[in-house]
Design brief:
heterodimer; A: about 110 residues; 7-stranded mixed beta sheet; 4-stranded antiparallel beta sheet; globular; B: about 110 residues; mainly beta; 5-stranded antiparallel beta sheet; 11 strands; about 60% strand
C-alpha cells in the first residue's frame, strides 16, 4: 500500500545516455513534483505538475522533461545525461485543498559515469 | 535573495538532552513553513506545517514554533530513534508560489 513509489531505486548509466524514472502515487492527489537532492543533501524543486499546469524551475536544463500519462503518474525523462546529473531524485505529491503538505517517494539514486 | 537557512548543520545529543533546531528565512509573502524528517536512504517525511507567527504544533517529543523570521523545532528528551536529518521548507509568493528547502540539520542522539 505504498503511497508514492518510484522506479528504479538505483540507476547507474553512462554519460550521454537517455533514461527515465517513473513515479506513481495511489493517494488520489492532484499535484505531483520532482525534486533533485545533490551530494550536499540540498533538496531543490525541479517541476510541479497537475492536470492543468506544468511549472518548471527555470534553472532546470531542457534535457529534463516530465511526462504525465495520467493523474497518478509523473515520469521524468532525462536526455544526454551528464556527470552533474548524478543525484537522488524524489517524486512527491500533494492533495488539492490540503494546503501544501507534500508526500515524498523513496527516491531514485542516479549515478552517471 | 530569498533564502532558508538551517542551523546547526549537525547536532549531537545524549539521550534525554533536550535542544532546538533553527530555521531562519528571508522571503516575501510567506504562505507556509514545513518541517520534514529524512532518514538515510529515504524520502522526506512530513512532520508539521506552520502558517502564521505565533503558531505552534506538537507531535510526541517534537514541537515546532514560528515567528516572522524563523522557526524552531524543539526536541524534548530525545531518543536514539529521533536521529535523522530535519529539513525545513518555506512556501512563499503569489500564484503557485515558490518552495525552497534548507540544507537540513543532521541530528544524532546517542544512548
Amino acid at each position: 500500500d505504498t503511497a508514492v513509489s518510484q522506479t528504479p531505486k538505483y540507476l547507474v548509466t553512462q554519460m550521454g545516455n537517455d533514461k527515465s524514472i517513473k513515479c506513481e502515487q495511489n493517494l488520489g492527489h492532484d499535484t505531483m513534483y520532482w525534486y533533485k537532492q545533490d551530494s550536499k543533501k540540498f533538496l531543490k524543486i525541479m517541476f510541479s505538475y497537475n492536470n492543468k499546469e506544468l511549472i518548471i524551475n527555470e534553472t532546470v536544463p531542457n534535457r529534463f522533461s516530465p511526462k504525465s500519462p495520467d493523474k497518478a503518474h509523473l515520469n521524468l525523462h532525462i536526455n544526454s545525461l551528464e556527470l552533474g546529473d548524478s543525484a537522488v531524485y524524489f517524486c512527491a505529491s500533494r492533495p488539492r485543498g490540503l494546503k501544501e503538505t507534500q508526500y515524498f517517494g523513496p527516491g531514485t539514486r542516479l549515478l552517471v559515469l | 535573495e530569498d533564502q532558508v537557512t538551517q542551523s546547526p548543520e549537525a547536532l549531537r545529543l545524549q539521550e534525554g538532552e533536550s535542544s532546538s533546531l533553527n530555521c531562519s528565512y528571508t522571503v516575501s509573502g510567506l504562505r507556509g513553513l514545513f518541517w520534514y524528517r529524512q532518514d538515510p536512504g529515504k524520502g522526506p517525511e512530513f512532520l508539521f506545517t506552520l502558517y502564521s507567527a505565533g503558531e505552534e504544533k506538537e507531535k510526541e517529543r517534537l514541537k515546532a514554533t514560528l515567528t516572522k523570521k524563523e522557526s524552531f523545532l524543539h526536541i524534548t528528551a530525545p531518543k536514539p530513534e529521533d536521529s535523522a536529518t530535519y529539513l525545513c521548507a518555506v512556501h512563499y509568493g503569489g500564484s503557485q508560489g515558490n518552495l525552497i528547502f534548507g540544507k537540513g540539520t543532521k541530528l544524532s542522539v546517542k544512548p
